[in-house]
Amino acid sequence: MYKLMIPKKFFVTSGKAINAISELNAFDEALLNARIGDQNLVPVSSILPVSIEKIDHVEIPMGAITHCILSQMKGVGEKTISAGLSYTFNEEGGGYVAEVHGYTNKEDAKDLLDRRIEEMARRRDKKVKEIFYVVEELHIPLNHYGACVAAIIFI
Questions:
Q1: Domain parsing of the chain, residue ranges
Q2: What is the reported pLDDT for 1?
Q3: 46 is a catalytic site residue
Q4: Amino acid 45: pLDDT
Q5: Can 86 be counted among the known catalytic residues?
Q6: CATH class, range 10-154
Q7: Active site (annotated) includes residue 71
């Protein structure tokens, strides 16, 4: 018999970083700032299982295979970047997650997230409850690299 992997809990985290060496180093530092830099992240699509519980951040052992919904944006000098996600639950207890990333500010990213998550619910003919957000914005200085991340981490 096949055993389904259905997460029971999740937490939300985010981080950002500027680095003078490379985008990769900025991304690594942003993951460290989000306290998920020592995990092997496996991105999954954007559905929250029925009855999943949101919890506070928990420490995950180094090297753990960690399923997540990840939004990320990297850039270089004199640019504003953002990465974020929103999530909500439907009347049955399951939920949806929308991601956004780009050369945009926090307010515009949030507007995009609203439209995306509302469309996800509409296509499924579901009514959703309150929408929650996490968005990181960063202005990258000249001659530097930057990265923003926002993630839902499944436990």
A1: 10-154
A2: 66
A3: yes
A4: 93
A5: no
A6: alpha beta
A7: no
